[in-house]
């Protein structure tokens, strides 16, 4: 018997009746021979982890643009924190940890340079609109692996597509990631904001702290425990009404004090202008995009406008700054002998 089959049999005996099993997957868009060791969702996790798009997350903004300190979150560290939260919940509820991790690691692959600032600009510029969740799906289906995509299972793609607030994941594992994403960024953004000295712990309304905890560590513990106890022996993953309402209010507090804080987000005006100028440059100099990239994405039937959005969205913060300097900042004049 193959190791993969032994793992699948063990899953059937040990996982919750509501968990998503590898043997029940709706499969991949392109059929493949299965691995003799790794079940489908574990293989998907590995594909995301080894993708170029995942590696680029280490140089993409989470909240603070171009932070000088080493301890501020990037899009990659956020992704790893989501994965950690999600696996903790999945293990306690006996859900499929490999599926949870594959979704978590892939959920933000489509984020632009400079975080949501870049997303807003591309949504305005691109004729078909832009959202990072749909872009994450585009990456794993059409862009990564030289235009062939990663050929992930239906369940992983569904979880990636529906990880935002308005999404409705079809699996409990997708629902776990959807909540874990909020738990991660609400708490890590507070931690980073305190580190940046734009707020202190005591700025958080007292009633919210009484409900959720008086430190980042306590709030993480409270929220994760609440998801587990509220969702035990249930096909639906959710928080208690009290904790979910408090988390929603805490998120609104962050919008006022962090996400829209001029001290924290003042540089976003420059970032947005840079991205818009880069977009306009490629619109009139389409041949500046590497032909190999164009050929890969063009194979999926995309027009110039979408290819420009894809190319810019895939840039890291530093690479976009490099290209901006190349296109718009004059080089110093130098003459031999002087």
Walk me through what this model shows.
The N and C termini lie far apart (76 Å). The protein has one domain: Hypothetical protein af1432 (Orthogonal Bundle), CATH 1.10.3210. The model has no long low-confidence stretch (mean pLDDT 94). It has 338 residues and is an all-alpha fold. It is built from 17 helices and no strands. 43% of the residues are buried.
List key phrases describing it.
60% helix; 17 helices; mainly alpha
Summarize, please.
The chain is mostly helical and 338 residues long.
Set down the secondary structure blueprint.
Blueprint: H1 3-14, H2 40-49, H3 52-56, H4 75-93, H5 97-106, H6 115-125, H7 132-143, H8 154-161, H9 172-195, H10 206-212, H11 216-231, H12 241-259, H13 262-265, H14 268-284, H15 291-298, H16 304-313, H17 317-328
CATH architecture identity: Orthogonal Bundle
Please identify the structural class as seen in this structure.
mainly alpha
Low-confidence stretches are: none
- Helix-residue proportion: 55-70%
Number of helices: 17
- Helices and strands, in N-to-C order? HHHHHHHHHHHHHHHHH
Count of the separate structural domains: 1
Distance between the termini: 76 Å
Give me the count of strands.
0
Q: Briefly note the CATH topology name.
A: Hypothetical protein af1432
CATH superfamily: Hypothetical protein af1432
Task: Give a quick account of the main beta sheet: strands, pairing sense, barrel closure.
Answer: none
- Which band does the percent of strand residues land in? under 5%
């Amino acid at each position: 018997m193959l190791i993969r089959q032994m793992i699948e049999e063990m899953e059937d005996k040990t996982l919750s009746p509501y968990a998503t099993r590898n043997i029940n997957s709706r499969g991949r868009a392109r059929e493949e021979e299965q691995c003799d060791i790794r079940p489908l969702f574990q293989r998907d996790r590995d594909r995301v982890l080894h993708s170029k798009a995942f590696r680029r997350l280490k140089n993409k903004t989470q909240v603070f643009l171009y932070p000088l300190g080493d301890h501020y979150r990037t899009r990659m560290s956020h992704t790893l924190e989501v994965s950690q939260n999600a696996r903790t919940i999945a293990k306690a509820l006996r859900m499929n940890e490999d599926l949870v991790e594959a979704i978590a690691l892939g959920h933000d692959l489509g984020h632009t340079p400079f975080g949501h600032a870049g997303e807003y600009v591309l949504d305005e510029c691109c004729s078909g609109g832009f959202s990072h969740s749909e872009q994450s799906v585009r990456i794993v289906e059409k862009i990564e692996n030289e235009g062939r995509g990663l050929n992930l299972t239906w369940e992983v793609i569904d979880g990636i597509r529906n990880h935002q607030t308005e999404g409705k994941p079809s699996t409990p594992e997708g629902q776990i990631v959807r909540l874990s994403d909020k738990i991660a960024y609400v708490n890590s953004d507070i931690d980073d904001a305190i580190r940046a000295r734009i707020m202190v712990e005591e700025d958080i309304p007292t009633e919210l702290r009484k409900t959720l905890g008086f430190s980042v560590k306590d709030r993480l513990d409270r929220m994760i425990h609440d998801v587990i106890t509220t969702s035990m022996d249930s096909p639906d993953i959710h928080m208690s009404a009290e904790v979910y309402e408090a988390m929603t209010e805490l998120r609104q507090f962050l919008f006022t004090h962090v996400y829209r804080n001029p001290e924290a987000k003042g540089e976003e005006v420059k970032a947005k202008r840079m991205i818009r100028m880069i977009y306009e440059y490629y619109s009139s100099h389409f041949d500046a995009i590497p032909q190999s990239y164009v050929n890969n994405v063009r194979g999926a039937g995309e027009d110039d406008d979408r290819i420009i959005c894809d190319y810019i969205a895939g840039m890291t913060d530093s690479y976009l700054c490099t290209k901006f300097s190349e296109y718009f900042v004059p080089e110093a004049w130098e003459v031999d002998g002087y």
